[in-house]
Structures
1.
Amino acid sequence: MPQDLALPPEDRRASSPQSVTRVIRLLEALCASPEPLSLADLSRRLDTPKSSLAALLRGLAEEDFVVPADGAWRLGSGAFGLASAIGEARRRLQSSDLIREGMRRLAARAAETVLLAVGDSDGDQLTYVDLVESRHAVRYSVAAGDRRPLYATAGGRALLATCSAEAVADYLKRVRPERLTATTCTTVRDLTAKIEAARQAGYAQTIDQAAEGVTGTAAVVRDAAGGVVGALVIAAPSARAQGRLPELARLVQDEAAAISRSLGFR
């Protein structure tokens, strides 16, 4: 008989894969609360039976990850020790390495060039600061350090979508959009609608806007404090991107979220 099946029912539940997720959510709930939480409070917040949580709390208490406090629970020294160790490991692994790793994953999954774009200090343009090129003979090519206008790029619209409506309006009043291709969107009304659509969707997608024959799909990466690190962009020849637009949107959103989590964003 497998060792875990020899355990009492409540302990088998505590050792199941689902319980790993519950332990993480339980610790996150205690971390977010300024006051100790009772078993009933935790059950409501996590939508989990009290019996299941009680088994997890007993196990965590044995390792001092949680401690009882007047009929409730709070984080213990074990949790703070682990947090310190994780923080030290996080400092050793630089953010740029985590972002680069995610860019490589995305380039492999999308089979297209992947870029990281950051907004310039003047708030009018973006700069591509890193890239992983597609292995296709025909691919979008850009150099690190190249700059593009926000309004005409997927990365720029994704960045603008994180700003307030007032900030977007100020930007569109300040810049004078140029028609970079035959289909570049240049009117304030249309650009406002495109940026708002990106805000609602969680990603931006442009087709032949900044350059003929180029489709961009972008989502923002955030750090532990919720700040915008930059925009993750898939850049592909439009002819190859047709028929893949929803897929590219899903891929860039998934990887931007994964990178953000690795940077501590919750």
Note: Residues 1-16 have pLDDT under 50 and may be disordered.
2.
Amino acid sequence: MHEPPAAGGSSPAWALILGASSGSGAAIAEAVARKPGLNVFGVHRGRYPDTARELEARVRDAGRDVHLRQADASTPEAAEAGADELLQRAGPRSVKLFVHAIAGASVGHFLSEGPDRLHPRRIQRTFDCMAHSFVYWTQALVQRDLLAPDARLLGLQNPLDETHLGNTGLISAAKASLEMYVRHLAMELGPKGHRVNLLKFGTVMTPALRHVYSPEALARLEARHAAMNPAGRMGTLEEVARFVTVLVGDDAAWFNGATIDFTGGMTLKLLDLVLNP
């Protein structure tokens, strides 16, 4: 078993990343391995094995330890098992950063009579993936004394709390629950010196998007975001990841219970685009 970090910080602390093999999770894992230099314990479902191997190599190139666990991270049992493995690997009080980047949601309509009906199993699965698992893992980390002093816990949010997109009602509801979990956990963990926040950012190009959309549809998506965003383009995974490295640092220590808007003003022009197309 690895020794826990020394009190003086001579051994690097760890980042726990759920959804680490691709997209925002992978980008954040690589970024925090380089700055401030965290080891990475990642959990992923195994859908992107090539990118998972690439992430391992990049983290090791940064001089940090890395361990990727292939498992469904969304259930209470998964959180318990994963936290046990993390404790064995990293030791107590080792987790400086916990990032919840699980993507697993159903799209559809609540009252549809067709195949897009959001039946109870889909609802439960979406809430487990996108909201409840944040609590499950936080509970498991606290019970095992895995949080390092001044640990940062971070959920990820999207702009669907400000606007509506046809078939994403279930995602919006789950993310609203996540926001409430973040606020209440911030109150419970604040006296212990930890910080719990939510980072909200807009659409970024990920392997999942490229898998779902055709090249033509992706081009339209980028063009519409260029019209919508004040900067005239989509945000990038690298920009999101770099900002997370800021949130781990001492200068961001007063953020707590916050929903941090990192959308680049993505929704500011929506009404103008509708009224003045």
Note: The two ends are 61 Å apart (CA to CA).
